[in-house]
Design brief:
Layout lengths: L21 E3 L5 E3 H8 L11 E2 L5 H6 L20
Antiparallel strand pairs: 1-2, 1-3
């Protein structure tokens, strides 16, 4: 089950469970859509995987399966997208 992390690892923007701006990779590294587009070029800086929109868990299911409250932040920030 997805942990639904609460923030962007790059800029620390809040990404609540209902956010359609949350993007994840297969390992659930979590970033906001702005950082994915402007800095990361759609690729996870941690694993090199594709970043896709995180699904929204229905509100009724959040009661039984709450989102994570553990914030993950890269203290050095995220590298800018490299030129091809």
């Amino acid at each position: 089950m997805l942990s639904l992390r609460p923030n962007c690892e790059c800029c620390d923007r809040d990404l609540p469970p209902e956010s359609r701006e949350a993007m994840i990779c297969t390992f659930e590294c979590t970033f906001c859509a702005d950082c994915v587009e402007a800095r990361l070029g759609g690729t996870c800086p941690n694993c090199g995987g594709e970043l896709v929109r995180r699904p929204v868990r229905p509100a009724a299911m959040l009661k039984k399966y709450p989102a994570s409250t553990e914030r993950v932040l890269k203290p050095e920030g995220c590298a800018r997208e490299r030129a091809a």
